[in-house]
Amino acid sequence: MTDDAHEFRIVRRGDRDHRIAVIDGPNMSNLGARSRKVYGDVGSLDDLKAYVAGFGERLGVTVENFSSNYEGAILEYIHESAERVDAYIVNPAGLTTVGEGVRHALEETGRPVVEVHFSNIQAGAGHGRGLGGGPIASSFTHTATGLTMGMRQYSYIGALTALVAALDDGYFLGEGVAGD
Ligand SMILES: O=C1C[C@@](O)(C(=O)O)C[C@@H](O)[C@@H]1O
């Protein structure tokens, strides 16, 4: 197969350069040294950031990466970025079950928020794409716009692609419902 066989063509219904913030929470800075079984072969958090930003470029949007091991730093980033970004993708990582402050800050931006995880955090113990120890309950999902998980780094690509389609779709984000 040629490289071309692995490319896919991107056709968007809009052409606006949306700005999408991708936030990685505590422990993601250690990505290169984490469990291969759960996190796959991404070499480092910087590699992940470059991969997601590069995909954003191909989609015609701007990806703004932010990561921190400190909850307060994540809160301050959300507060100061809310005016300029169109949507958030967040891997709450170590804050997944306890991140009420971050969840609330994201909710208060009024922007779409897609939660992402490498693993399927709801999978049972022994599931190939789960965390190993069995399911955990995210405190983010109940106010998120959407969720992608269980597909390692591709969860981010799924979130980004769906968000761009949604941002291009005036009905999705507006008051109206398609068909109104
Ligand atoms: O750090 C992480 C990463 C994670 O959010 C994931 O991407 O699968 C899953 C969380 O349970 C864990 O604490």
UniProtKB/TrEMBL annotation:
Keyword Lyase listed: yes
Catalytic activity annotation: 3-dehydroquinate = 3-dehydroshikimate + H2O
Biological-process GO terms, alphabetical: quinate catabolic process
Catalytic center residues: 39, 117
The organism's place on the tree of life at top rank: Bacteria
EC number in record: 4.2.1.10
Keyword Lyase: yes
Molecular function via GO: 3-dehydroquinate dehydratase activity
Protein keywords: Lyase
Site label Transition state stabilizer, positions: 34
Top-level EC class as recorded in UniProt: lyase
Pathway linked to the protein: Metabolic intermediate biosynthesis; chorismate biosynthesis; chorismate from D-erythrose 4-phosphate and phosphoenolpyruvate: step 3/7
PANTHER family with a match to the protein in the record: CATABOLIC 3-DEHYDROQUINASE
UniProt family annotation: Belongs to the type-II 3-dehydroquinase family.
Subunit record text: Homododecamer.
Entry protein name: 3-dehydroquinate dehydratase
Organism name: Actinoalloteichus fjordicus
